[in-house]
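Fold this sequence, please.
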Amino acid sequence: MHISEKNAEGVIVNFATINLTAVAQPWQPTGVEGHCYGGWRITGAGVGLLVEVKRFAIRSLMGKELDSQIVLRIIEARDDQVEQAGYLFRQNPDMSSVMAIAAAGDLSIPYIYSKCHDPDIAGPYWSGTTIYRADISETMHSLAAKDLSYQPPKEQSHNKTLKWNNVLRVDLARSRERLYTVYKALREMRA
C-alpha cells in the first residue's frame, strides 16, 4: 500500500538510526516463507537517533555574517527535530526519548574541502541533544489535535527549552569526542 507524502502520518527525516534486535532462525532453503535477513528474525526495532541537515550558508559570507547564518540553519534543523520527535513519539507510545542531531552543510567531507576556499570555515556544523517525550508536550498536543478523536488535556501544555550542545564543526577534535559519545549511547540502546 502506498501513502502519498501529503497523507502520511509523520515527516521525512534526512537520516535515522534504527536499533534492531533479532534471533537466529534454523536454516531454511532460499525461497521458503519466513527465510530472510540472512537467517535472522527481527524481534524489535526502535529509532535511536534522528538527524536533520539543512543546506550550508552562502559561502561568500564571512565572519559574524557567516556565523549568524550557520546558527540560523541549525535552529531551523532543531525546530524540525522537535516535530519529527513528536511524530515518532505518537507512533511509539512506549518510547520516552530519542537522540537528535541538527546540522548545517553538506556531510560529504571531500565535497566540503573541494568547494570551500578556506578550510577553516568549511562545515558541516552540528549540535545535538536528547529529546524527551515529556519535554515536547505542546508539540505532541498540536500533532494529536489533527486527529478528530483527540481529547485535549484540561491544562495548557508547553514545550520545555531543550538543552542543545554548542554548535561545532564536524572535523574538530571536540566534535569527534562528542560523536563518539553518541556512538556509545546508540550501542547501549535496546530496540
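The CA atoms of residues 42 and 78 lie 31 Å apart. The two ends are 26 Å apart (CA to CA).
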